[in-house]
Amino acid sequence: MAVKTCTQAMNVWLRLQPYLLPCKELSCLRQLSQYSQRRSNVGGASLHSLPGNRFSSELLSAASPSLVCFRTKSTRKADVKISMDLGVCGIERLEDFTPLSDENLQTDVTCQINQSLEQGDIGRLYAIVHIRGIQHKVTTGDVIVVKYDFPPNVGDCLRLEKVLAVGGKDFSLIGQPLLSRNLVRVDATVVEKTLSHNRVWFVFQKRRSFKKFFLYREMFTMLAINSIQVAKLPEQKMELEAQSIQQLEE
Amino acid sequence: MSNNAIPRDFLKNVLQNGMGRYVCQLQRITFRFCKSHPGSRHMRDFIENHMLDFTQKNPGVVVYLQPRRHRPPSIVAEFLNGRREMMEMIDKEPEEICKWTEHMRGRSGVQIVNMIRNNHTETPSTQGIWHPFMFRDSETALTKFPNPQLSAVKQTGKTATDYLLEEVEKK
């Protein structure tokens, strides 16, 4: 309800945005700086007193407002998106996908995909696969790296279960957020387990005789994608759903 | 600091290894040690206690023992692509030597360098690489501009003024 009533304010809010946001940040940053001045540094250097910290109290007090409120375009965009998701300022999201209201069209699309599956015309498939927080766009025959300790041994065959999307030359199936296990199957083999090259971790602070030098190597696992398989789509899904909804209502 | 200072390379899957059948890329391992020097005692422990487990688990890997007098202990691994990797095993416990031999077994012979990208494909595009005319109507090639239909303002949605006008009309 809040979303719908606020829509008339949408345009107004957007126009005022560049002026409103900096003021809001300015006020809260000033509050932060006051707090840090009052509070003594407990147990050594606090966050605000470390050199190079953009938001340190010295900089805040000295610098002009334009310097202090440094926000990138990406952060602003992210905030707008978050507010849209929360429905705070009541902005209706632009629709990326038009839902298929025409049921006949939907069945046509699924029939076409199933036909090409039967005939074997589907061709090369790609899949977007989620492993350990990282997504990869993957086809048969390509190699992926999984960072850090990965339990499977060299030569093991895996099935990558979290598939976000699958597609071929003429179609794409996009999950919300994942596709079901009965629909897609992505097989991979562990091909190699190595270490990374020697990476340097070097910390230096000038005029403080503070430096650390540390070499480290991360563990990598290479997966080779063996195959991507798509099952036949259910053509009568809408009817089944409608039936189940009727049953629930009864 | 230039691009070429730190050696880097794309990922390689040696001869499409996992696609048909996985083949262990380690061809042979040589354990080099001294029979008498105390520096090689961990290596000698490893050879007595752990080495045979490794050979039994990996019958496809050839294992050599090379006693070298007055020299420190080391492992030399040779891979199917012809590359050779040597690692010194001084002051390394037998468990650590086990881990390093296991590491050599898991590797392909490719040299360890900074990887440019964490994936590699031979076929990056399944639906065709986008070009500006991909989803455009080819009729625009024949139209004369300015075209009133193409220049018309697109309807985006209900604006605040529309909403207000509706409210007024209701009353």
Automatic annotation (TrEMBL), chain A:
<dbReference type="GO" id="GO:0003735">
    <property type="term" value="F:structural constituent of ribosome"/>
</dbReference>
<protein>
    <recommendedName>
        <fullName>Large ribosomal subunit protein bL21m</fullName>
    </recommendedName>
</protein>
<comment type="similarity">
    <text>Belongs to the bacterial ribosomal protein bL21 family.</text>
</comment>
<dbReference type="Pfam" id="PF00829">
    <property type="entry name" value="Ribosomal_L21p"/>
</dbReference>
<dbReference type="GO" id="GO:0005762">
    <property type="term" value="C:mitochondrial large ribosomal subunit"/>
</dbReference>
<dbReference type="InterPro" id="IPR028909">
    <property type="entry name" value="bL21-like"/>
</dbReference>
<dbReference type="InterPro" id="IPR036164">
    <property type="entry name" value="bL21-like_sf"/>
</dbReference>
From TrEMBL, chain B:
<comment type="similarity">
    <text>Belongs to the mitochondrion-specific ribosomal protein mL43 family.</text>
</comment>
<keyword id="KW-0496">Mitochondrion</keyword>
<protein>
    <recommendedName>
        <fullName>Large ribosomal subunit protein mL43</fullName>
    </recommendedName>
</protein>
<dbReference type="InterPro" id="IPR036249">
    <property type="entry name" value="Thioredoxin-like_sf"/>
</dbReference>
<dbReference type="GO" id="GO:0032543">
    <property type="term" value="P:mitochondrial translation"/>
</dbReference>
<dbReference type="InterPro" id="IPR039927">
    <property type="entry name" value="Ribosomal_mL43"/>
</dbReference>
<dbReference type="Pfam" id="PF05047">
    <property type="entry name" value="L51_S25_CI-B8"/>
</dbReference>
<dbReference type="GO" id="GO:0005762">
    <property type="term" value="C:mitochondrial large ribosomal subunit"/>
</dbReference>
<keyword id="KW-0687">Ribonucleoprotein</keyword>
<dbReference type="InterPro" id="IPR007741">
    <property type="entry name" value="Ribosomal_mL43/mS25/NADH_DH"/>
</dbReference>
<keyword id="KW-0689">Ribosomal protein</keyword>
<feature type="domain" description="Ribosomal protein/NADH dehydrogenase">
    <location>
        <begin position="35"/>
        <end position="108"/>
    </location>
</feature>
<dbReference type="GO" id="GO:0003735">
    <property type="term" value="F:structural constituent of ribosome"/>
</dbReference>
